[in-house]
Structures are given as structure tokens and as C-alpha cells.
Specification:
It contains 13 helices and 17 strands. The chain has about 500 residues and is an alpha+beta fold. The chain is about 30% helix and about 25% strand. The strands form three sheets. The protein has a nine-stranded antiparallel beta sheet, with helices on both faces.
Length: about 500
């Protein structure tokens, strides 16, 4: 018990040190500790000179490794001799200190220096200097009879270098993120991080216009992220008993283009929200510019904005209100989503609007819908849409039956995924799943993920044709292994 208490005190002490206590890089202490680190690793570890370890390690050494457990001095030396240094002539692992990560903190007692803590990161290379790993460390050096000895060492957060190489310089450094955006020709990036069923962080980077930084409440056009909002309007109406999931839509609306096609009577809200209508994405893409069926409704998946617009017109006919009015009543006002609109009006704060850009940095003309589009061009912020997703994740305003239907595969989509009601479903294994939807348009690349079981989520909004280039590292950084699984599914 006493050992556990002592360890807790050591760990707490090491990690509570702040930057103000660091010694200057030109100080004698800084140079001394770095010289000891060099002897220990550049000579001892990298050349398997065991004598350096015998000299520099305290007889009371305590070494804690997040993969290999605890070692004292005897075990540490034994493992080294019989492991990495068993055959020095063919040994291929080398350690390199990341000097810019170095932090050194002096330890005093009654004003007298007795030790120092060295925090940092180090890289490991294998097979002809190929970088393969990176880890953090905290080393406690103490003066024993006037000689510096390594007394305690913590080695942790071991990762493959390829993953960490992107994460460390970018996501822990705002200036690096801004540089990263410029390299990828993305003027503005909005991030929302959901943890424990709550929107925990809102981050917005880049510029809203030349020389003016984007604010946390920057307004984005999110393209097809409009569709989940429309879907939840309908599903909340179903939960209230005011709309039916499987009732034929023709009772409220029939498009003139398909009025004489008996297949129009098979259209339901369920088929529309799971993209099984048989419609193309947009009628203007068809040769005759008219709406028509390309297959029997309900027989397979085909993504369609026309389906969502069909649902809008039916809802508006039944309730005698515009989709904007219905969404205001059911979602936007209850969730205080003041910056979220289907339509462009005088209340849109253009000073906060992220204009869309092409890959050459040329601005697109801003879309200003006067009529709601159920499938496209919603204006919103990270905060508004993040709170909307939290509301959905926590099944607020949705009956248990409707929520389960929303999360249940309705039809196979692409790459082994399925569409539920309003969201695409990623099977992550071990009964874990993610709900997702993306938005892609001129000057818009957006995507969201929510994981109802673990109560996690991620929103990524960008205002550039090149914005999708940011998805992979952001997914891996903020959703970890689950983000990797999502990426693996997408790159099958």
C-alpha cells in the first residue's frame, strides 16, 4: 500500500509541474540533464553499451512502461541484455530525443538543488532508420552523493509514428492548424467534439474573410447535412402521433411528373428517409429534366435529394406550414438554434458567414434560398448542429420505437454500410456503431458522426472543395480506434 501511495505522489508531482518552473535552455542544469540523457540513450541504448546504464541508473530505479509493466534496476538490465541488446550486431532499434519537446524542472529542498524532472518525447527507428514509434517519457534524475542518477522513469503513450506524426504538431498547436489549413487550401474549419452525450468543445479555425479570423459561431452552409434535420422533423412528428412512417405519401402530395405512374402510391416516409424511392438524386440530372422512377420503390438503395423534397411538400401540404416553420417549432426554437435556417432572410449575419471556395481559392456565389430545400443548403453553426446531434443521440423527442427504427438498417448502401432513417450506419464491431451523414457541394465539404452507445460524436465543417482532405487525421485524432475503423470502411 505504501508503495502505491508513493507512486501516486510521484506521478501527481511530475505531471503537476507547470511551464513557469522550467529551466532555461542555456542553463547549466538544462545542459547537464541533456548530457545525461545523451549518455543514457545515444551511447547506452543506441550502441548497447550496458556499462552506461550500470553507471547512470540508481540502485533504487523504478521504471514504469505502459506496455511492459514495472521494472527495478536488476530486471531492467536483464531485459535489456536478453532482449534488444542480445545480438548487438544485428540490433536495429534506435532512440532519438525530440528536442523541442524537452522540459526540465528543477527540484529543491530548503533551497538546495537535489534533482530534476525531464519530460519529453522520443522517437524509435527500426530497419535502416525508418521511424516506427513515438512515446512520451518523464525521467526523475537525483543527485546521489553528488552524482546524477536516474531514479524513476515513466514511458507511456506509445504509438505508431505515422499516426502520431500528424497529431502532435497539428492538433495541440493552433498555429500549426492554421498552417495545415492553408496547405490544404481550406479557409475555414469548424469542429464540434461530443463526449458523454454533450457538446464539449467547439473549435473554429481560419479566416472568415482575408485578415479576419473566423469566430466560434461562424455560419456554414452544410449542404446535405440538411437531410438529417428534415428527417428528424418527420420522425419527431411520427413520435408525436401526427405523422405515420409507413403511410403512403400520395395521400398528401403527388408530383405531377409521376402522377400517372402507379408506383407513386408505394412511396412512404420510411422509403424516403432510407433512400429507397427509385428517384435519381436530382431531376435536373435526367435527360428530360423530369422526375421519374429508375426502379421499383423499396427494392434497393439510391441516394436522392428529390426524395427529401418530395417529403417536404407532403409535410407542408398536411400541416399547412413551410418546412422552416415546422423545423422552428419542433427543433430550432426548443434547442435555441437561432443561427440555423433553411432560407436566406434579413436575419442572416453575413459578417459570420463562411463563403465557399474552390481549390484555387476563388469564391463561389452564395446560395440564398427563398424557399426551404429539404435536402440541401441549410445554414447553421457548429454549436447549433452539435446540440441538434446531441438531442438526436439522446433520443430526446423521439419515441423508443422510432429511435430504434432510426438506428436499424433499412437497406444496404455502399461499402458494407446500411442506411437507417436519415443517417447512414457504420458497423464498428462488438455491437458498436456510428451514425453519419455528409454534405458535399460547391465550396462545401462537411461530415458528422455520432456513436449513440458511447455517447461520442464529431462534426467537421469546411468551406472549400478540398475540405474532405482533412477528414482522415481528424477522425483518427478525435475518435481514436473508432475513427480508424470508420476510415477503414470508407477505404475498402
Amino acid at each position: 500500500m505504501a508503495k502505491k501511495i508513493l507512486l501516486s505522489i510521484i506521478v501527481a508531482f511530475i505531471f503537476s509541474l507547470n511551464s513557469k518552473a522550467q529551466v532555461d535552455k542555456n542553463s547549466d542544469l538544462y545542459k547537464t540533464i541533456l548530457s545525461k540523457d545523451s549518455l543514457l540513450f545515444n551511447i547506452g541504448f543506441n550502441t548497447c553499451d550496458i556499462k552506461q546504464f550500470e553507471i547512470l541508473l540508481s540502485k533504487n530505479l523504478k521504471f514504469y512502461h505502459d506496455k511492459d509493466g514495472f521494472s527495478d534496476k536488476a530486471k531492467f538490465l536483464s531485459d535489456l541484455k536478453n532482449g534488444l541488446c542480445k545480438s548487438p550486431e544485428i540490433r536495429q532499434v534506435k532512440r532519438t530525443l525530440v528536442k523541442e519537446s524537452t522540459q526540465i524542472f528543477p527540484l529543491y529542498k530548503n533551497g538546495i538543488l537535489y534533482g530534476a524532472v525531464h519530460n519529453g518525447e522520443h522517437l524509435f527507428s527500426e530497419k535502416r532508420e525508418t521511424l516506427s514509434g513515438i512515446a512520451k517519457f518523464s525521467n526523475l534524475w537525483k543527485l546521489e552523493d553528488g552524482v546524477w542518477k536516474l531514479t524513476a522513469s515513466f514511458s507511456f503513450d506509445h504509438q505508431t509514428y505515422e499516426n502520431k506524426r500528424i497529431e502532435k504538431p497539428i492538433f495541440d498547436n493552433d498555429a500549426e492548424i492554421e498552417k495545415w489549413l492553408k496547405n490544404n487550401k481550406v479557409p475555414t474549419l469548424g469542429l464540434g467534439i461530443i463526449e458523454n452525450g454533450k457538446l464539449k468543445q467547439i473549435k473554429v479555425f481560419g479566416e472568415i474573410t482575408k485578415g479576419i479570423s473566423a469566430s466560434y459561431n461562424t455560419i456554414f452552409n452544410v449542404a446535405s447535412l440538411t437531410k438529417p434535420v428534415t428527417a428528424i422533423v418527420a420522425l419527431k412528428l411520427v413520435s408525436l402521433g401526427k405523422w405515420k412512417l409507413d403511410e403512403p405519401i400520395y395521400k398528401y402530395w403527388t408530383d405531377p411528373d409521376i402522377a400517372n405512374d402507379p408506383r407513386n402510391k408505394k412511396l412512404t416516409t420510411r422509403l424516403i428517409l432510407s433512400h429507397q424511392t427509385g428517384f435519381s438524386n436530382w431531376r435536373w440530372m435526367n435527360k428530360d429534366k423530369k422526375l421519374g422512377f429508375e426502379f421499383e420503390p423499396g427494392t434497393k438503395y439510391q441516394y436522392s435529394g428529390e426524395g427529401m423534397e418530395y417529403l417536404r411538400k407532403a409535410l407542408e401540404k398536411k400541416f399547412k406550414k413551410s418546412l422552416q416553420e415546422l423545423a422552428d417549432e419542433i427543433i430550432f426554437k426548443p434547442l435555441n438554434m437561432a443561427d440555423t435556417k433553411y432560407i436566406w432572410d434579413k436575419n442572416v449575419d453575413v459578417s459570420r458567414l463562411a463563403v465557399g471556395y474552390d481549390k484555387e481559392g476563388n469564391a463561389y456565389e452564395t446560395v440564398k434560398n427563398k424557399t426551404p430545400n429539404a435536402a440541401d443548403d441549410l445554414l447553421t453553426t457548429i454549436g447549433d448542429y452539435g446540440n441538434f446531434l446531441v438531442n438526436v443521440m439522446n433520443s430526446e423527442g423521439l419515441s423508443k420505437e422510432v429511435f430504434n427504427q432510426m438506428n436499424s438498417p433499412q437497406t444496404a448502401s455502399t461499402k458494407g454500410k446500411h442506411f437507417g432513417l436519415g443517417f447512414e450506419i457504420y458497423d464498428l464491431g462488438n455491437q458498436e456503431y456510428a451514425l453519419s451523414h455528409g454534405g458535399s457541394d460547391y465550396g462545401v465539404q462537411t461530415i458528422v458522426f455520432i456513436l449513440p452507445k458511447t455517447k461520442q460524436g464529431l462534426l467537421i465543417f469546411t468551406n472549400s472543395d478540398t475540405g474532405a482532405n482533412l477528414y482522415e487525421p481528424l477522425l483518427k485524432h478525435y475518435l481514436g480506434d473508432k475513427g480508424q475503423k470508420i476510415f477503414d470502411i470508407e477505404t475498402k
